[in-house]
Amino acid sequence: CSRPQKVCLCPFLPINPLKVSICLYIIQHPAEESRVLRTVPLLAACLPPDKCKILVGRRFSEDRYPELATVCRNPNTLILYPGAEAANLEEVAVMSSSPSFMIIIDGTWSQAKDVFYKNSLFRLPKQVQLKTNISSQYVIRTQPTNSCLSTLECAAVALTIMEKNKSIQETILRPLKALCSFQLQYGAQIHHSKEHLLKNGLYDKPMPKNKRKLRRMELLVNNVKI
């Protein structure tokens, strides 16, 4: 895990990489690469190298990324990104055979939105989203809403659904829970979602002046899906 021995996560990783049929392509925003407490390295440590490929960048053209372009054009590829046009992954899993590839964008919500909409390749695969009631275990980082999950958690849930194997989610989440436990022991604080803070009058930062951002906060408080 490349961490100091006192906070080593290796005992919480699977002894052998998980056997999965789907290959994940993690499209990582460059800003995520410099974060200390990232979840993608933990995800990669749980899977075989040929089943978890990480591409870092903001723009992905067909000329510079021919392999990715081929994956995006494959009819058996899904992209995990929520939206009005996204199908429920559980329904897709019931109606079709297991996909060959799944693309997940790693970054903050604004970074992921920028990557998704400014790269035409990512509109080629079938768009899917998770309909789950689980709360994020990544409690040392603030999420926009109570239902938001980290990249590792999204991958864990998605793989569990598509591979029809509940133990996958438990195995992948184990090192994340250990990471958060270690950080809390050494002084980190539990981060509630922005939605939780706003609804309970605990949000202590200045409200944004930008009308669009202010409107998004109002929607969070009023339980409107954004």
UniProtKB/TrEMBL annotation:
EC number: 2.5.1.25
Alphabetized Pfam families for the sequence: DTW
Keywords: S-adenosyl-L-methionine, Transferase, tRNA processing
Gene Ontology molecular function, alphabetical: tRNA-uridine aminocarboxypropyltransferase activity
Catalysed reactions, as listed in the record: a uridine in tRNA + S-adenosyl-L-methionine = a 3-[(3S)-3-amino-3-carboxypropyl]uridine in tRNA + S-methyl-5'-thioadenosine + H(+)
Gene Ontology biological process terms, A to Z: tRNA processing
All residue ranges annotated as the DTW domain in the record: 1-188
Matches recorded under PANTHER family: TRNA-URIDINE AMINOCARBOXYPROPYLTRANSFERASE 2
Entry similarity comment: Belongs to the TDD superfamily. DTWD2 family.
Name of the protein in its database record: tRNA-uridine aminocarboxypropyltransferase
Native organism: Upupa epops
Gene: Dtwd2
